[in-house]
Design goal:
Layout: E1 2-6, H1 12-23, E2 26-27, E3 31-32, E4 47-48, H2 51-59, E5 63-69, E6 72-77, E7 85-89, H3 91-99, E8 106-111, H4 114-123, H5 128-141, E9 152-155, H6 162-178
Parallel strand pairs: 1-7, 1-8, 2-7, 3-4, 8-9
Antiparallel strand pairs: 3-6, 5-6
Helix pairs in contact: 1-6, 4-5
Length: 180
């Protein structure tokens, strides 16, 4: 399983898309308490559950990690861990995956400087106030001491294409599994 972590606009989501389309590495399906949007499919986009069901799943120790975001709970369950799967995660989630000490999980940190990430957020049309807030929050969340020991640090700066980054991650993942 591939675990991707990195600050806002480091390329995690786009890399995950390339891993899926080019190499068949699909994103795990996470669980949420938020309402399903019009075109979303339960079990494909998310597993949509009630707050009570989510809390029961916590008590049953079914999550690798979970978080509260915008008033809704989100989490990835242990039963979603599998080869040729991918998850995009924050630093706390990264620590949770590393703590599993599962040799089939390979962790990657996508490193991109603030200027590169700022340009990407502007390019994709993010709100200027949200860009400023995300950059400031990421300075704290992604300090080196807040990032658990990852297996690989990947250069995801502007001088590389997302396709190149995804290919490096895939090839590293494949070679990592061959070493077992």
């Amino acid at each position: 399983m591939i675990v991707l972590a990195g600050a806002s606009a480091s390329g995690k989501t786009e890399v995950a898309k390339v891993l899926a389309s080019k190499y068949g590495i699909t994103k795990i399906v996470t669980t949420t308490t938020r309402d399903k949007r019009k075109d979303e499919v339960d079990g494909v986009d998310y597993f949509f559950v009630s707050k009570e069901k989510f809390e029961q799943m916590i008590l049953e120790d079914r999550f690798v990690e979970y978080t509260l975001y915008n008033g809704q709970m989100y989490g990835s369950t242990k039963d979603q861990i599998a080869n040729d799967k991918c998850v995009v995660i924050d630093p706390a989630g990264l620590r949770s995956y590393i703590a599993l000490n599962n040799k089939n999980i390979v962790t990657f940190y996508l490193e991109a400087d603030e200027e590169t990430r700022h340009k990407r957020m502007v390019f994709r049309g993010d709100d200027p106030e949200k860009i400023k807030s995300r950059i400031e929050n990421d300075r704290i969340a992604f300090k080196p001491e807040n990032i658990a020991k990852v297996d690989f640090i990947i250069d995801a700066s502007n001088n590389r294409t997302i396709d190149d980054v995804a290919t490096e991650i895939y090839e590293t993942y494949i070679s990592f599994h061959r070493e077992d």
